[in-house]
Amino acid sequence: MSYSLHLRAFLVAILLGLSISPEARAARGPRICPLDQVDAIFAQLDAACPCSEATSKREYRRCVRLAGRTIMKASNNSLPRNCLRAALRCGNQSTCGIDGAVLCERGKPGSCVSGACQHDMAISCATDQDCVLSVCDVRLSPKNCGDNGGTPAGLGSCCSL
Most buried by CB count within 10 Å: which residue of 65, 80, 84, 126? Predict the structure, then answer.
């Protein structure tokens, strides 16, 4: 019986979602936030929560989350939430509060399509090896970064590279 109710609710939600006109969907705007706006929000988060003062990853993430709420309130909730979420991910993907952690950069193969790299059509290529994407993540030590084919890139956030 419960399953039947959940199924009905699911179907109603789908029907309501399909009834939204394409114009209404387009009016919501793109879900991707411009990089300069993410950088500006992350700069505010970074100023409110200096990485060098973090004593633990948990404390740093809490600080970033609270600072994000403050920034949203200061904007009278006019700041696009997807932009704030992207900036919060920058704070979460950092070495702040983790002893010995480093940013680790490594290359990831891309795709060459019709003489241009698929991730950036302005880059010309002859083979897929010409289209290497730079990927950043946090590793617990420089050795761990090197063991996984990366190059240690310092401290902070991947968004600051």
Answer: 84
Contact between 125 and 112 (Cβ < 8 Å): yes
DSSP type of residue 150: -
Gap between the Cα atoms of 67 and 76, Å rounded = 14
> Which residues of the chain form beta strands (DSSP E)?
102-109, 112-113, 116-117, 120-124, 132-139, 151-152
Q: What is the strand order of the sheet 102-109 is part of? A: 132-139, 102-109, 151-152
Nearest CA-CA partner of 144 in 107, 104, 106, 109: 104
**β partners of residue 151:** 105
Model confidence pLDDT, tens digit, residues 21-62: 444 333 444 567 778 888 888 889 889 989 888 889 999 999
- Rounded to an integer, what distance in angstroms lies between the CA atom of residue 133 and that of residue 108? 5
Q: Is 0.70 topped by the overall pTM?
A: no
Instruction: For 80-90, write each residue's pLDDT tens digit.
Output: 888 888 888 88
End-to-end CA distance of the chain: 53
